[in-house]
Design a protein that fits this description.
The protein has a domain at about 1-75. The protein is about 40% helix and about 10% strand. The chain is built from three helices and two strands. The chain has helices at about 5-20, 20-25, 35-55; strands at about 85-90, 95-100. The longest helix has 21 residues, at about 35-55.
Length: about 110
Amino acid sequence: MMSTDEKWLERIRQWHESGKTAEEFAVGQPFKASTLKWRAAELRRAAELRRAAEGGGRYGKSDTGNGSIRLARVVSRARAAAPGAGVVVEVSGGASQCRAGSMRSC
């Protein structure tokens, strides 16, 4: 008996081979196009995480050199920034502050 992931991998393979859009492929199937696309994205993310954990990056080599995965937390604010406000970009412990409209100088 196939596992759920195996069943979805087979469906995704058939979808890709069909050349159809997810919406076209899902017609008459026991799932929606949105579910097909979500499952494909989830299985792809899981495979990328497995490769990264095994020391291989997205393109077959480690992105960080030590098998770790670097993540960024994006914080969204509902209010608009004040005119002339800048942004602070921090990379590897160094910081750079940029004024609005002057991103070329960053």
